[in-house]
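Margin note: ligand = MGD.
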Amino acid sequence: MKKIVGKIAGLVRQWEGPQTDDLVLRPGEFGLGKIPARLTPDDTTTMVCGYCSTGCGLNVHLKDGRAINLSADTHYPVNLGMACPKGWEALTPLAAPDRATTPLLRNETTGELEPVDWDRALLLFCERFKEIKRNHGPESVAFLSTGQIVTEEMAFLGALFKFGMGFVHCDSNTRQCMATSAVAYKQSFGFDAPPYSYNDFEESDVLLFIGSNPCIAHPILWQRVLRNRHNPEIIVIDPRATETAMAATQHFAILPKSDLVLLYGLANILIASHWIRRDYIDAHTTGFEDFANFVAQFTPEVVSGLTGISVDRLWRLAQTIGDGKRVSFWWTMGVNQGHESTRTAQAVINLALMTGNMGRPGTGANSITGQCNAMGSRLFANVTGILGGYDFLNTVHRKHVAEQLRIDPAAIPNRNSRSYDQIVDDIEAGKIKGLWVVATNASHSWINQSRFNETLKKLDFLVVQDLYSTTETARRADLVLPAAGWGEKEGTLINSERRIGLVKRVTRAPGQALADFNIFKLIAQYWGCGEMFREWSSPEAVFQILKRVSSGQPCEIDGIKDYRMLDDCGGVQWPCPVSIDAAPPATERRLFEDGRFYHADQRARFLFEAPRPNPEPADVDFPFILLTGRGTSSQWHTQTRTGKSDVLRKLYPENVYVEINPIDAERLGIAPNAPVEIASRRAQIEATAFVTNSVQPGQLFLPMHYPSVNELTFPAFDPYSRQPSYKACAVRLTAKSARL
Ligand SMILES: Nc1nc2c(c(=O)[nH]1)N[C@H]1C(S)=C(S)[C@@H](COP(=O)(O)OP(=O)(O)OC[C@H]3O[C@@H](n4cnc5c(=O)[nH]c(N)nc54)[C@H](O)[C@@H]3O)O[C@H]1N2
Ligand SMILES: Nc1nc2c(c(=O)[nH]1)N[C@H]1C(S)=C(S)[C@@H](COP(=O)(O)OP(=O)(O)OC[C@H]3O[C@@H](n4cnc5c(=O)[nH]c(N)nc54)[C@H](O)[C@@H]3O)O[C@H]1N2
Ligand code: SF4
Ligand SMILES: [Mo]
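Resulting structure:
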């Protein structure tokens, strides 16, 4: 063991690199890979942004081989020279003083986190998790990870944990975000496949945004909408008059969580009015007759009563869809975060199928992803499916992947992992005793936060791997592993239109922080399964493994030769089989142009189910419905990164504020900017009143970026995707009582 440890200490030093001012980026290489030889140390290179799923290309300006500045890339096919404030400021958070620069271990006597070296940290990591496994079995340790590390790291983490370390249960923040889209697509199309390319924003003559606020959450995608030359009808379905709703041609301020009823009602009008494409339905789908019979009960009168939209406006909306030649349907968290979200997403898909708005330019049932690599985590993280979109329950799949990875098929679990909420339940029940949290700040972002944080106390060992030692989750850890961030390591990210883009190492991580990739490599060695991952030597080597594994799958990427090709092409969309005719592959591609879906019969399914009431409706004691979501384009989630930029901090309110309709404010004697209290059945928090017509009477909105917000939320989950319903719980609002 000693010999291995000595060797590994050497490896750590090697990966850290000397702590001098040497070049990070040398001519002829980037990070550990290759760049065009023309690059000089004071030149500019390009890479994709590491915040949202838009996946903008950024120019990185170098001095002496290190990044000193960023600007938007005018040639990248995604953003065409534009970037949002987070992108422009992406380097700043890397230099924050609270970066974790050494591993930190909790001193059991003082209770403080104290620096230790990597060797001690890794020995302890393995010792503690092995001890838990020995005493409680392979289901007693879990990890929670992310949609915000590169695909190669996600794949490594999932393979290491399940095949190498022999555990079963893991999930990621993608559950909070994209699980609904993944399940909905899989059931309807036969594979988790968002069909569009960004060009569709520009090609539509009608665009519907359902529970989606791109002006704030995907501002560069909104710029693509503004480039549309067809004078499009832009329809927003959102209880709030968001920035996007205000820019739309029609806004439907539906009652929260009434989307399913609305979408079934629209289907009913479209069918009754023959505004459907019978030829498309007959040729490419199954289940339409049953669906048509089912939606007949959703008459405009019934739907109007349940959604708050007048019968006239329902007709107008249906007609706009029916008259449209190229209609695209876009949805985001207003749909995905709900108690019946999978069926709601499928109700959107059904509208696109029945009107034949699929596979043609400017059409599609299009879920917009959230995090920079949520799509990577859906297909390549080894969490909900085996690497490359395979199924853990399928013997043939397990055997195939094992062959491709050259491992024993018995190393691949033959059952699915517990989902995030079930992992939390298992911790509470004492079944899961060890937890490893990688690149997510669960203590802030998980629903019904106080219970989550209480539950963490039941763990025997909590490891947090993050850029910062100060996150709400890291502060609760027994062991903190310091990670390098975006720009300090390399790999690929997959954006909302399935485009695989490249991230490069353009600056050095501080102190002893290591790329997640190298942390996983070290853990494999210390755990004793290093041999299994011998081929996983660098991110690009893993990329080659993922090409091999996913070959023949809908998400295949065999035709992407190497990182250099990604760099030259401005990213490449999947699928990209070796046989792809264009070289380099066409800049923008959409799926299902031939009407063939991924089910065995090549037909898409109409899936539906009776709507169910919101599990926590407003009542006499808690008369408001609380909506939550993104506040400004300068804030990112739990603010661990965006909160570190002076520039971004100037662009949003420092303290938590709540949007209140003027009618409610007046009734409750709440003046603009006055302090208020918001209480749910779980907690009470304070906020500043933002009196605005953007929310309807009886509703409140809190941005998710402030740590107290999830103390209020109610833990309801969609039964199919297990995605939390963050956007609707019952609360009470009062003016803050004057201090005595
Ligand atoms: N600036 C910024 N951009 C981001 C992020 C960020 O943190 N900051 N996060 C990224 C991530 S991970 C994600 S997932 C995306 C999220 O992107 P979006 O989903 O667009 O953002 P949200 O604000 O969460 O939710 C969208 C809208 O859903 C509405 N809504 C609430 N309840 C309902 C309902 O019952 N029905 C309907 N139809 N609408 C409802 C809300 O009012 C809100 O305006 O943004 C990504 N982009
Ligand atoms: N009320 C409410 N709650 C919500 C939502 C909502 O709409 N309303 N939205 C949900 C959604 S859609 C999402 S996606 C989640 C997001 O929730 P989180 O994932 O918890 O939010 P982030 O702040 O993005 O946390 C990412 C963490 O990873 C760290 N990190 C960044 N890069 C790296 C890296 O390369 N390596 C490592 N090791 N660490 C890294 C960051 O410092 C940060 O601590 O929040 C969910 N929570
Ligand atoms: S829109 Fe998204 S990908 Fe583009 S610069 Fe902003 S955060 Fe980065
Ligand atoms: Mo998300």
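Residues 14-23, 26-37 have pLDDT under 50 and may be disordered.
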